[in-house]
Design a protein that fits this description.
Blueprint: H1 3-18, H2 23-39, H3 41-45, E1 48-51, H4 63-71, E2 75-82, E3 91-97, H5 100-104, E4 107-108, E5 114-115, E6 140-143, E7 146-148, E8 161-164, E9 168-169, E10 175-176, H6 182-190, E11 199-204, E12 227-230, E13 235-237
EC number: 6.3.3.2
InterPro entries: FTHF_cligase (IPR002698), FTHF_cligase-like_sf (IPR024185), NagB/RpiA_transferase-like (IPR037171)
Organism: Extremus antarcticus
Amino acid sequence: MTTQQSKSDLRKRIKTKLKTLTEDEIKTQSEKAQSLIISLPQYQSAQRLSIYLSMPSSEIQTSSLVSHALQNNKKVFVPYIHHPPTSPRKVIDLLRLSSLADYSSLSRDSWGIPTLAKEGVEGRENAMGGFGLGTGEMLEVKEEGEHEDVGRKGEDGTLDVVVMPGVAFDEGMNRLGHGGGFYDGFLSRYCSDGTGKPFLVGLCLAEQMLPPGQEIPTMYDDWIVDAVAVGDGRLLTLED
């Protein structure tokens, strides 16, 4: 069985398990996990961070975390999926929410996820600097101090923390995504010019955390996270 097949099988098993959870169980776990994130010193000191916007079921909800960050004057960037003309596949850019009112006004897509409208994205601050959408390409380093500007658009292009969704996590801090490769691709682009990576935090329900001794099948371009906040109250870190 290939790594991709193993990943697909694991996704199916986890998603089947998640269907048994009630709304109240997800709400309770979401409150615990979001509180863990808020308690992290990396979150408390962060000025610029990205938080995924959650589906209404089958994953940790992030609405309280997004609201807390905005209320505490943090710059919050959320995923926007698009297909750049020069890219062979869809990518995500992380674009800024301007306010709580902006967040509350978002419409939901077919998955029930609050989503930025296509109209107006060019006026939103991009987490990699500047405004609007990127090209989806790596930032090519030409010579020391000189760059081909195909990704990072300005000196503001830094992130302190990225809160990432996942279908499953393991104690080695490996993450199994939904299969699109969006976050792995973004992080590779973000760090392609030598910019240090943000502090990466996974959020998951207890049912999405693999038992001790079980590992997520990985590939060379899969990124590990620095911490995982679990809905049963556990906070796992690379130092554990």
